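Appendix B, record 7
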Amino acid sequence: MSETGVLNLELRYLKDVVAISAGNSLYVSEVLLCDPYTRTSPHNIRALVGNVGKPGLALLLLPKHSMRREPDLESWQMVNHTEFDGVFQDNFQGTSLHISLTGYEQPLNTGQHGGRDKEVYYLEVVVAALHDGSWVADLDILNPIMARNAIPQNNIRYLPLICSHNDAEQADSSHLARLTSIDNWYEFLDRPQNAMIVRAKGNWTARLALATVTANMQQSLIIGSEKICWACAKHFTRLLGLDPQLQNFLC
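Structure tokens (predicted):
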């Protein structure tokens, strides 16, 4: 391995690793740094400047089970569930992602001897979604998101970037009996019993968090790029045998 000059880890040790901290560098799975609509591969890595503040080679893992905030009955005034007005916008500007250590470490036996410190070890971290500084959920990103090509079995699907429908056809959502706008995390976690559209247009951080939490909840999600073509959505749900009246959309 180039960072140490002596260690050569087998790939099986890296199966669930989301990032590696070595020296002043972080090597992070690209999936954690992209909009969920972006076509990428779980094998793509980005190099960033920084570290976790610990010596040696730290292999970062996510917890096996993720947690999320439960609907708060005292926050009922924040849940409006208004009907979609046809406008695609970003109402999740306060959402951010943060990494913290859980305290769990496990040294990895590399067969090297003579060092006084742990040369290589697993380090558990949590990727948390916060909104305006308040915790919303811990994200199990690699399981539901992974490569875009591998997502369909996890109930996340994508509308085409370009289609042949005209503006009137794209804007016609009349086939949905009711379509609710989701404009904050309170509304998202206390979701309606009908079709809904989560409005986080152009905000890759919020869209990644929202898509991940939806997948962690084992609910289906149809993702558009900048907007939703409702003609494509109608065709898509019919083709896949999905009930359009219960679908979750993300723009």
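Remarks on this record: The first strand starts at residue 17 and ends at 22. Confidence is low (pLDDT under 50) at residues 146-153.
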